[in-house]
Amino acid sequence: MRGFKIAAGIAVLLATGLPLAHADTLSVVQQRDAVRCGVTTGFAGFSAPDTKGEWRGLDVDMCRAVAAAVLGDASKVKIVSLNAQQRFTALQSGEIDLLARNTTVTQSRDTALGAIHAAINFYDGQGFLVSKSLGIRTARELNGATVCMQTGTSNEQNMADWARANGVQYKPVVIEQFNEVVNAFAAGRCDVFTTDASGLASIRISKLTNPGDYVILPEIISKEPLGPFVRQGDDAWLNIVKWSFQAMTGAEELGVTSANVDEQLKSPNPNVRRLLGVTGSAGKNLGLDAKWAYHIIAQVGNYGESFDRNVGMDSPLQIHRGLNALWKNGGLIYPLPIS
Ligand SMILES: N[C@@H](CCC(=O)N[C@@H](CS)C(=O)NCC(=O)O)C(=O)O
Fold first, then answer.
1. Which of 99, 142, 150, 264 is 20 to 30 Å from the Cα of 112, by its Cα?
2. What is the dihedral of CA 194, 200, 204, 205, to 10 degrees?
3. Segments in the chain forming alpha helices (H)
4. CA-CA distance, 28 to 26, in Å (whole number)?
5. 167-178 residues labelled b (16+ CB within 10 A) or e (exposed)
6. Contact 330/281 with Cβ under 8 angstroms?
């Protein structure tokens, strides 16, 4: 059997010129009966285990949505914890099918790493977290500061660019493991923690003993559009991840929720009927069951439900929808037509 698999793998390699990791991810996932999803090592709101050890978060919901769409069961997810440095290697090697790990979409990541983004599930920007005891009110006062950040993040280059542009001198402390960066900051080994503003809100609430002793400065120094990535060269899988996210935002726009989705199967609205697979061929076009989006909405919820529960007003993070509101409410979330 093993010999056969290796021979088959070499055949794929010879036929396509691509390593096995680039083969048909949908078939691999269906055979395994689970989606292998790369997330953080534990970052509340986006991907972290709850008190029962169940992984939760906005990004974990992305993993669960894909499992619901492909396998009809949102729980068929195998979580792979990755630090920032490890994430793209895990995707390239085929260790994971999907990277859903608060990852900023940049031109180089979308081209030179063999990866490609499937959606933007959170619009963010980089900020600064400081101890109130420093008495700093704006980032312009950071001259001479020691700045903690994590290896392999977009935050390193943004910090350098911003400091140069603003004539700010700083000493970087760059650490690979997330908990070690947090510990260094909590112990006062650096004055500032810089990362995505959502990350700072999460660290302040979930990692620091007295959140009230810390403040997030008003400046946002970059754009951090965060989203799931897949491997280049597998368009069918890219489409599945892309449209799983679109199903969640489309459901919010149409008022379809986990609570009313069964009722909505009877809706006369043609957009709802196509979304839920009552009419049309959206599922078939993706190589999936007609109920692909129904399963996502029933088991994971729409985008607004996921946002509120994980990072929004129903969560400890209390992040406002802001840029992540639907376009008709002044945000950037613009669901693509399912037609
Ligand atoms: N969005 C940025 C930063 C993402 C990032 O890795 N942030 C850190 C600091 S909050 C993190 O999530 N660490 C969690 C971990 O390594 O488990 C990027 O894509 O480079």
1. 150
2. -170
3. 2-16, 25-32, 58-71, 87-92, 107-111, 154-165, 178-186, 197-206, 235-254, 261-264, 270-275, 282-285, 292-299, 303-310
4. 5
5. ebebeebebeeb
6. no
Four-residue CA torsion sign, 284, 288, 294, 297 = negative
Given the CA of residue 152, which atom of ligand 1 is nearest to it? 20
Ligand 1 midpoint to CA 84 (Å): 6
What global pTM score does this model have? 0.93
Pocket test for ligand 1, best of 37, 39, 40, 110 (most atoms within 8 A of CB): 40
222 close to ligand 1 (CB < 6 Angstrom)? no
Is the pLDDT at 2 greater than 50? The verdict is: no
12 pLDDT more than 60? no
| CA neighbor of 238 nearest in space, from 64, 22, 13, 15 | 22
Specify which residues 304 forms β-bridges with: none
Q: Is the Cβ atom of 126 under 6 angstroms away from ligand 1?
A: no
pLDDT tens track for 268-317: 999 999 999 999 999 999 999 999 999 999 999 999 999 999 999 999 99
For ligand 1, is residue 249 a contact (CB within 6 Å)?
Answer: no
Is the Cβ atom of 83 under 6 angstroms away from ligand 1? yes
What is the whole-number distance in angstroms between the Cα of residue 2 and the centre of ligand 1? 37
The closest residue, in CA terms, to atom 16 on ligand 1 is 83
Phi-psi region of 186 (alpha: psi -120 to 50; beta: other; left: phi over 0): alpha
Whole-angstrom Cα distance, residue 30 to residue 293? 17
Which bin fits 318, alpha (ψ -120 to 50), beta or left (φ > 0)?
left
The residue-averaged pLDDT of 55-72 equals: 98
> What integer pLDDT is reported at residue 23 of this predicted model?
73
Asked if the model's pLDDT at residue 151 lies above 70, the reply is: yes
- Contact status, residue 174 vs residue 149, Cβ threshold 8 Å: yes
The finding on whether 131 has its CB within 6 A of some atom of ligand 1 is no
User: How far is residue 335 from each of residues 268, 275, 332, measured CA to CA in Å?
Assistant: 20, 12, 9
